[in-house]
User: What shape does this take?
Amino acid sequence: MDIDTIVNFLLIAGVIQGFIFNLVTLLFRKRFSIVVLYLNLVVLFISLNNLQAWLIEQGYISELFYIQNMLVPWYFFILPMFYAFIIHFLEVDKTIIGFVKFAIVVFLVEIVVRSAVIAHVYYNVPGSDTTLIGQYTMIEDIFNLALSIVIFYKAIELVFKRENMYKNMLSYDDLKWLKLFFKVGGVVMLSWVFAKVADFMFGIKWGYSILRLSSSVLLYWIGYQGLYRYKIVQDRIQLRKRIAKNNKFIGIAVHTTTDANNKHKIEFDRVHEFVVSQQKYLEPDLQMNTLAMELGISSSHLSKLVNNYSGFNFSDYINSLRVAQAKKLLADETFDNYTMVAIGLECGFNSRSTFYTSFKKFTSKTPTEYLNGVQGIR
Assistant: This one.
């Protein structure tokens, strides 16, 4: 099996996966939002573009001259739809420039112009020589590449340089997955430029296969990531509101001492009361140095207090409070409809793995096992 066969197989497999993704998200989601719509459109246009390329490679094209030369620029929609997804996912000011309407206009104009060029060649050029069509395709590709680079840059600028526009979203998602996409996506954009230069200057076509495969893998990944992250963010938004409304926070649960000789225990009780009452344990990036500064004591002194009177080191002490918060939520049936990951993140953990590891450490059960247990005795 040669490399072209492998690439074509992966392309058609990706196309099928893309269509399944669209069907599942469209037909089986209880709630459909504009964010999911644009995410689906990103995946749809990747799939349509790759399907067209696969059909051409396999020779499954019509004998009609018009159909043979009508290369629909589906790929041009990918970045405008992705940019629209970012705007709505981050819930930034909707007056920020968008490219969807512009992309639709450009797409329709390109279809009309290509149709006119094809008709001219068919009826007026001797032997229907397709050289003019090839020249138009080159111009169209360069134009689309330039516009795509501009949109990609605007998306990078929004995510990396305009964080003030979506500060609220950063309390629900650190966007590391999105920033990783742009870093890898930059390499893919460069490969697009390389593929065009290699084709136009040297007639080398294999760059397109690498481009289609790499961009497809990246964009399908961002499709699934986006859908997954959006679900978690929406859960966290509703979860945070409900926790605050029902006051579902752990209590102080401190047995303070009046023994004047045990001043360090009294200090720890005050530390504990501050951490719990101010819900510092819910901050995923909480550091001992930061907390010590807020308390007006040294880090070393805080460490000794926590170690001596909580029975844990600082990290385990904070995680024990987070686990206590999670147990409180899991024990309440009103929180059963929220994902386990959203609950863990809202309790201060910065990932699913740290949530499960810590929960197991302090309860000897996974969150799912604990939930099944409390549901059985409700």
